[in-house]
């Protein structure tokens, strides 16, 4: 079942276009990676999904009454303990009113491996421990959908491995759908069912690059000519991306001749890692 659907979604800040007509969907129970270089629009997209920012154009549909938890640059009360932080944040939740918060907090802190640090002030925590407390806070209302923005930034190899284990436990224990962003594909590749890559304001799905791709960069590609190339996938505003198969290449060359296109450059994508070169 689809819980998030986007079609031709764009976002601009003034004259700066950040995301350009991206389309995707998220299914129940998936762990999905959102990958791209710093500043490519990952956080902007997550904020739109969370309702913290509005699209400039296009469609974005989130399942009605979907319970969402998120970890976006979590700010903690440094002089309070882990337990006290959870109690403070729980006061802002209508769903948790009247519930035994202390028991819920103990269970969450045990789940993220902080049960032996319940009474310690957060200022004494390592960065990795603070990230795990942020994860516990994101699980307070038992969300169906969890959004994690760059959770591995600042963590060492051991910290990343621990956090990845918690992500898998959350999906396996609770059936939670998880969207996790990173600027490094290698960090999240092994735990994700699939990934979506943002580059040049566009989105590329992982299943689109299972086969080797050919990139044709076209000289002076106008909007009118782009419309005449309907059905082809654009890697960026000037580049068409197609499978490295003779039938598809022949189809592209036919359209190129019909529309008097001049090919400036031909290159290849062998796998997802080539996108970041």
UniProtKB/TrEMBL annotation:
The keyword Transport applies. Gene3D superfamilies: P-loop containing nucleotide triphosphate hydrolases (3.40.50.300). The keyword Phosphoprotein does not apply. Residues 4-225 form the ABC transporter domain. Keywords: ATP-binding, Nucleotide-binding, Transport. GO terms for molecular function: ATP binding; ATP hydrolysis activity. It comes from the Bacteria. InterPro entries: AAA+_ATPase, ABC_transporter-like_ATP-bd, ABC_transporter-like_CS, ABC_Transporter_VariousFunc, P-loop_NTPase. It holds the Pfam family ABC_tran. This is ABC transporter domain-containing protein. It comes from Enterococcus cecorum.
């Amino acid at each position: 079942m689809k819980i998030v659907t986007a079609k031709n979604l764009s976002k601009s800040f003034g004259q700066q276009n950040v995301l350009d007509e991206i389309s995707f969907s998220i299914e129940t129970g998936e762990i999905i990676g959102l990958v791209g270089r710093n500043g490519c629009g990952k956080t902007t997209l997550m904020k739109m999904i969370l309702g913290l920012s509005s699209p400039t154009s296009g469609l974005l549909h989130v399942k009605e009454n979907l319970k969402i938890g998120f970890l976006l640059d979590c700010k903690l009360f440094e002089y309070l303990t882990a337990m006290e932080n959870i109690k403070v944040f729980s006061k802002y939740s209508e769903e948790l009113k009247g519930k035994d918060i202390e028991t819920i907090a103990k269970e969450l802190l045990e789940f993220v491996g902080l049960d032996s640090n319940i009474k310690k002030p957060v200022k004494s925590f390592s960065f990795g421990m603070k990230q795990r407390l942020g994860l516990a806070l994101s699980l307070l209302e038992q969300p169906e959908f969890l959004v994690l923005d760059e959770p591995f930034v600042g963590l060492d190899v051991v910290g990343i491995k621990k956090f990845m284990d918690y992500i898998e436990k959350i999906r396996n224990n609770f059936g939670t759908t998880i969207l996790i962003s990173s600027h490094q594909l290698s960090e999240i590749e092994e735990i994700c069912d699939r990934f979506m890559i943002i580059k040049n304001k566009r989105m590329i799905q992982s299943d689109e690059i299972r086969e080797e791709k050919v990139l044709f960069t076209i000289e002076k590609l106008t909007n009118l000519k782009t419309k005449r190339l309907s059905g082809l996938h654009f890697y960026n505003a000037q580049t068409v991306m197609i499978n490295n198969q003779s039938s598809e290449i022949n189809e592209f060359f036919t359209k190129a001749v019909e529309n008097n296109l001049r090919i400036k450059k031909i290159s290849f994508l062998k796998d997802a890692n080539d996108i970041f070169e």
